Amino acid sequence: MDFGIWFLLAAALVFFMQCGFMMLEAGFTRAKNAGNIIMKNIMDFSMGAIAFLLLGFTLLTAEDYLFGFIGIPNLNIFTDFSNFDFSDFIFNLVFCATAATIVTGAMAERTKFTAYIIYAVVICAVIYPVQAGWVWNESGWLAKMGYVDFAGSSAIHMVGGICAFIGAFILGPRIGKYTVDKTTGKKVVNAIPGHSLTLGALGTFILWLGWYGFNGAAAESVAQLGSIFVTTTLAPSAGAIATMLFTWIKNGKPDISMTLNGALAGLVGITAGTSNVDALGALTIGAVAGILVVLAIEFIDIKLQVDDPVGAVAVHGVCGIWGTLAVGLFARPIVKGEDVISDVTGLFYGGGAGLLGVQALGVLAIAAWTIATITITFLIIKKVHGLRASTEDEILGLDSTEHGLISCYADFLPVASSNLQVMGGHSAPSIAVAPSVAIPVTDVSTGKKLTKVTVITRISKFGELREALDKIEITGLTVTNVMGYGLQRGHSHTYRGVPLESPLHPKIQVDIVVSKVPVDVLVKTIKEALYTGSIGDGKIFIYDVENVIKVRTGEEGYTALQDSVLAE
Is 102:163 a contact under the CB 8 Å cutoff? Predict the structure, then answer.
């Protein structure tokens, strides 16, 4: 077998993992940001490739390596292209891009696109290459100590996970993710479901496929490659099963999205020791990772209240640490014929604690480097350029505000989170109408007359409106996502540089049917909740309702409205 060809084919598989990351991240977040995630994933590779070419590659692989710490940069690809190691560059590039793209998911839905490009370049040019050289450059200080990270549990995944955690922490949570219960004063964690579990699952399977190249690229014999394929199959299988069973027992139902994370956790966990453990070791590492990822996701989300929409910190950061340390426990000599697959021994196979100590030292050193450099990077970006998108941009969706795209799904309405409970006005100019003039209303209906009140307003005002309606005992309403424009014709949008003929703006329509609650009270409550004095506050439509029939009981009129889930 020509392992030079396999080396490049495996690199192509790792490149294809970018597609998997993109699908997973898009599926686990809301549709209004899917295009932004697509752009970030293609740009972190494209911009990262140039940054890695100009600086990162030589920092990692240079033969002139200073004090076991860093390579001396050169531009041999431009000055001596014929003798340049093409294969080695592509191989290292695709792994570098993986470390950068991990960060995308944890910081999704509220990061400026330009800020993302800046820190992705810094990761690919400096942060990743320096510590990766410690591990994989023959002159690297960790490599000389016998540190084992065959395919990058620490050098790639832990680094990406740490960058993701610090970025999400500095950036802050998505609007509506954490709120305060006004009754108890306690913080509430709100779920913000992704728009397509199908996309997330497809992304997971693509990543699993690519992982055979990720772990197997550096194999030097068919026997070693076969062993790597076995461990790369068993660990994620055990991880997925462990997560499924753990969530089933814990929550009463097997959690689908967590199980997808469990498979990835097993893959991350086995990456460091994929060539150094046997089947039992792979199963154990994967199973532990599958449980660990659930505990870590819930701890980060609920206890630390760091908003990570896709679980990247737990999957890559926490399980990357576990997988690296696990080599010091489960590594064992493996020889098949003349092929030496593994020549290191961990604690559980009689090798003592020496390897485990080296692994722990490496984890601490790489983590310290990553924490220091990425924190400085994010803080500088936040201070000088700005890291987070504006409140309005986040509410409307980054597809629209960052890229001029109404939706990635042109035939469907953008999905709005049901738990948006935010304040903030519109950017349109203010109308000089005082609240004392705008809000008062006259008596519209009395008695048991049936009246339908329809409100069309900004998505961002729904949380305040719902809270106000609760206070006047409106017990049911119907909410619909709608699109349209008024005299101002909404925001302008283009597709491939061409203006769209009918620009539409996302709104919500709230329908309420009342009888017991006076309509004048309802209308006044709605106006008080929605009024800002700016274009876009919304409109209220009032209709007479001839009759209401409850299908389940046959009740009509006023009686039919009582105990209803659709109206007061």
Answer: yes
Please list, in sequence order, all residues whose beta carbon lies within 8 angstroms of the beta carbon of residue 230, skipping any fewer than 6 positions away.
279, 282
How far is it, in rounded angstroms, from Cα 457 to Cα 519?
Answer: 18
Task: Give the pLDDT confidence score for residue 493 in this predicted structure.
Answer: 55
Instruction: Answer yes or no: are the C-beta atoms of 311 and 239 closer than 8 Å.
Output: no
Residue 369 sits at the vertex; the CA angle it makes with 365 and 373, to the nearest 5 degrees, is 170
CA distance 231 to 347: 19
Residues in the chain: 568
Helical pair 319-330 and 279-298, crossing angle rounded to 10 deg: 150
Helix, coil or strand: residue 314? helix
Which residues, at least 6 apart from 406, have a Cβ–Cβ distance to it below 8 Å? 399, 400, 414, 493, 500, 503, 504
Tracing tokens 């579990």 back to the chain, one arrives at 197
Q: Which residues contact 481 (CB under 8 A, 6 or more apart)?
A: 413, 414, 415, 416, 459, 506, 507, 508, 509
Give the model confidence (pLDDT) of 362-381 as tens digits. 999 999 999 999 999 999 99
CA–CA dist 261, 278 (Å, integer): 23
Are 172 and 380 in contact by the 8 Å Cβ rule? The answer is no
Flag whether pLDDT at 144 surpasses 50: yes
**Which residue bears the tokens 């290459």?**
129
- Structural tokens at position 39: 């752009």
What H or E segment, with its residue span, contains residue 189?
Answer: strand 187-189
pLDDT at residue number 181: 82
- The reported pLDDT for the residue numbered 214 is 96
Q: What global pTM score does this model have?
A: 0.78
436-437-443-444 Cα dihedral, nearest 10 degrees: -130
DSSP track, 400-451:
HHHH--S-SSTTSPPP--TT-------SSPBP---HHHHS-------TT--E
| Residue 16 contacts residue 206 (beta carbons within 8 Å) | yes
